[in-house]
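Appendix B, Record 12. Input sequence as logged:
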Amino acid sequence: MIRPWLPLTAANLADVPGALGVFEISDPSGVIAIEYAGGHSSFGLRGRLERWLDERPGLSFRYERTNSYLSRYRELVRAFENEHGEPPEQPNRTDQRLEGDR
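Logged structural output:
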């Protein structure tokens, strides 16, 4: 992802589109979650990111709009696993594990 990291605040989320796409959440130690906003996500990327607002202080995010969100999501998770040897922490993950994913 090439978009810069932004602090996870309501003001910054106001500029995020309600579109399909993928996003990463980080804390000071690095990426802790990779998720997507799909066709069933209320308010798209903005709606999915809003779930993280009260998770804990000091989080940052970046996102990428894409209609190929499932492919891009898998690509980002696999790249993270290759680099770190395990998937991200995913503390706020709901039902985003896809069939065939580990």
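Strands lie at 6-7, 21-27, 30-37, 60-65.
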